[in-house]
TrEMBL record:
<dbReference type="InterPro" id="IPR011701">
    <property type="entry name" value="MFS"/>
</dbReference>
<keyword id="KW-0812">Transmembrane</keyword>
<feature type="domain" description="Major facilitator superfamily (MFS) profile">
    <location>
        <begin position="10"/>
        <end position="396"/>
    </location>
</feature>
<keyword id="KW-0472">Membrane</keyword>
<feature type="transmembrane region" description="Helical">
    <location>
        <begin position="102"/>
        <end position="124"/>
    </location>
</feature>
<feature type="transmembrane region" description="Helical">
    <location>
        <begin position="304"/>
        <end position="323"/>
    </location>
</feature>
<dbReference type="InterPro" id="IPR050171">
    <property type="entry name" value="MFS_Transporters"/>
</dbReference>
<feature type="transmembrane region" description="Helical">
    <location>
        <begin position="42"/>
        <end position="65"/>
    </location>
</feature>
<feature type="transmembrane region" description="Helical">
    <location>
        <begin position="218"/>
        <end position="240"/>
    </location>
</feature>
<protein>
    <submittedName>
        <fullName>MFS transporter</fullName>
    </submittedName>
</protein>
<feature type="transmembrane region" description="Helical">
    <location>
        <begin position="136"/>
        <end position="162"/>
    </location>
</feature>
<keyword id="KW-0813">Transport</keyword>
<keyword id="KW-1003">Cell membrane</keyword>
<feature type="transmembrane region" description="Helical">
    <location>
        <begin position="373"/>
        <end position="392"/>
    </location>
</feature>
<feature type="transmembrane region" description="Helical">
    <location>
        <begin position="77"/>
        <end position="96"/>
    </location>
</feature>
<feature type="transmembrane region" description="Helical">
    <location>
        <begin position="174"/>
        <end position="197"/>
    </location>
</feature>
<feature type="transmembrane region" description="Helical">
    <location>
        <begin position="343"/>
        <end position="367"/>
    </location>
</feature>
Length: 397
């Protein structure tokens, strides 16, 4: 292990900021999709394909490489993740037609799948060395804030580029390319926290498993993660299109702010209610999902943009707590020796919820008007999120 150039405390914040930046870039294109659509004239379904490529990239890389930092080293794997994200920025700059967008989002998703588990582990290890007597919840909270906070900031940044700065289909990718390359250089200053073995184990895909003694609780939690991420998928992939078609709002900053508010509410709810008992958190999650999604539906029908936006924020709060409960359940019921396998399966199911429903909605939008499609989707996710939350709450006794 090479001698570190910064202390573990400083390295902790370098990893946290890098985590935030890479996650933010992954959602920067959200408010830009209507601009690509306007330029190239493709249907809304193409946007869902581009978005789904990202989720598929996350799932594939999480399954294949999410665990290799245990023997390759945290810093080395994080460097690969950041450079893959930079490569996707290059693709956006030089290959921006539809095939290029799909491949760029696939590569970007791959970087996120590699990044999330590795950065989370690295943050925990760096903090435990820097502050050995501190509760581990601090590192977990910073990790969660970087993850969801980055996802929230990206659309807002993309909206600023789209409405206030020149060349919005080029400039944000160039700016983030420079930022990501600087982050890759800065990563070299961070201490390694894994002793890399001289004879590393042979690579194999990440094992995934359902805890056999708590199968029912795990399946219920996975159901909640899938349905909750379906709500995120709606606001990440299709919200800008709905704002244009249903509310006649072509403001790209508004589209970015809408997605930002949903993810920010999810992140804030997890932080504010971190010390509250799980059953209470799940009660808030059920109420938030129910009230918020009803508000989204009424806002779409009326149409009332303010109600639609407030409903999205309230639903985001509920989904954030629902997903936190799902991850907490997976950790609680997993065999200690196979905890990583159970968490990997939970994340794979969650990202499937991000991609598959959005693809279905995009396909239906080819033949049906947007408002009935939105209402049908809201009805389904309302039923699934509330049902999952109630079942998880009952199992948490």
């Amino acid at each position: 292990m090479s001698a570190p150039r910064v202390r573990h405390a400083a390295g902790f914040w370098i990893i946290a900021v890098t985590f935030l930046l890479v996650m933010a870039y992954s959602t920067v294109p959200t408010p830009l999709y209507p601009l690509y659509q306007q330029r190239d004239g493709f249907p809304a379904f193409t946007i869902t394909i581009v978005f789904a490529a990202y989720a598929i990239g996350v799932m594939i890389s999480l399954y294949l490489f999410g665990h290799v930092s245990d023997w390759v080293g945290r810093r080395r794997v994080l460097l690969v993740a950041v450079l893959l994200s930079a490569l996707s920025a290059l693709m956006f700059v030089f290959w921006s037609d539809v095939p290029g967008l799909i491949v760029a989002r696939l590569v970007n998703g791959a970087s996120i799948g590699i990044l999330t588990a590795t950065a989370t582990a690295h943050l925990g290890e760096l903090r435990s060395v820097a502050r050995p007597t501190e509760n581990s919840i601090v590192a977990a909270s910073v990790s969660g804030a970087a993850n969801l906070g980055g996802l929230a900031l990206g659309p807002l940044i993309g909206g600023v580029f789209a409405d206030l700065l020149p060349d919005p289909l080029m400039l944000p990718h160039v700016v983030f390319l420079v930022i990501l390359l600087l982050a890759a250089v800065t990563l070299q200053l961070v201490p390694e926290t894994v002793d890399i073995p001289a004879d590393p184990p042979r690579w194999r895909p990440q094992r995934i498993s359902i805890p056999p003694r708590s199968r029912r609780r795990f399946v219920i939690a996975a159901f909640g993660a899938f349905s909750g991420f379906a709500v995120f998928g709606l606001f990440t992939s299709l919200a800008p299109t709905f704002l244009v078609t249903t509310f006649q709002q072509g403001d790209h900053l508004l589209a970015g702010a809408t997605t930002f508010s949903v993810f920010a509410a999810a992140a804030l709810g997890q932080i504010v209610l971190a010390g509250v008992r799980l059953r209470i958190q799940l009660t808030v999650a059920v109420i938030g999902c129910a009230v918020g999604l009803v508000g989204v539906a009424i806002g779409a029908v009326t149409p009332a943009l303010a109600l639609f936006l407030v409903g999205g924020v309230v639903a985001g709060l509920g989904v954030g707590l629902l997903f936190k409960g799902a991850i907490g359940t997976a950790v609680a019921v997993a065999d200690p020796a196979r905890k990583g396998e159970s968490l990997a399966l939970m994340f794979l199911i969650a990202y499937a919820g991000l991609a598959l429903p959005a693809l279905v909605i995009g396909a239906v939008l080819l033949i049906e008007p947007p408002t009935p499609v939105l209402l049908s989707f809201v009805a389904v996710v309302l039923a699934t999120t509330v049902s999952a939350g109630l079942l998880m709450r009952r199992a948490a006794r």
